[in-house]
Specification:
This is 60S ribosomal protein L13. One of its GO terms (cellular component) is cytosolic large ribosomal subunit. Keywords: Ribonucleoprotein, Ribosomal protein. Strands 1-2 form a two-stranded antiparallel sheet. The protein is flat, with a radius of gyration of 31 Å. It has a domain of about 100 residues. It contains 8 helices and 2 strands; from the N terminus they run H-E-H-E-H-H-H-H-H-H. Helix 3 crosses helix 5. The protein is mainly alpha-helical.
Amino acid sequence: MVKHNNQLPKNHFHKDWQRRVKTWFDQPGRKKSRRTARSKKALATGAQPLQRLRSVVRCPTQRYNIRVREGRGFTLSELKLAGVPRKQAKGLGIVVDHRRRSKSEEGQNLNVERLKEYRSRLVVFPRKAGKPKSGDAQGDDLTSHITRTLPGLPSVYEAEAPRAIESGEKDVQAFKALREARAGQRSEGARQKRLAAKAAEEAAKK
C-alpha cells in the first residue's frame, strides 16, 4: 500500500476495450465511392457548371497580397454594378457574400468584369421547352457547344523584364525609407495635435 493519505487507486482493467475500438480500414473504398458519386451527380446535372462562380480576392498579409485566389462570394455592390439581381444570383450559380465589402476600386472592377464575362457565356435553359422567359436562352444557343468550366483567375501581376540598375536606384536605401514613412504615418496624429496646441497657445498670448 502507498504511504500517506492519498486517494485510493481505482484501476479499471476489466473493461471490454476491444468492443470500443474503431477502425478505418474502409478509407480507400469510401474515397472511391465518393468519387463515383461526384461523377454521377455531375453527369446528372446536364450542362450545369461543375462549380459555382466565386469572386477574386487578394491573399491576406503583406507577404502574399501579390497573389489572388477565389473568395467566398461576390459583394452586393459588385452584383449591382454587373446588373445581376441579388435573388437571381443563386439560381445562376453565383455565390453571394453579403458580409464582404469592396475595399478598392480595382478589385471591384475585376469582379464586375468577371461577372459580366460569366453572364455573356451563360446559357440558361427554359424550365418549359418552347416557353422561354426573360433571360432564357433561345435559338442556336440551346444547341451550340457548351463548356462547363468556369472562367479562370485573372493574372493581375505582370513581371518586369530584367534591366540594369540605374545610378539613382543605387543611392536609395529602401529599408530606411520604408521605416521612416511608417514612423511618419504613425506619429502624424501626435504631430498635428502638437501643432494645434502650439497655435492655440500663441493665440492665447496675443
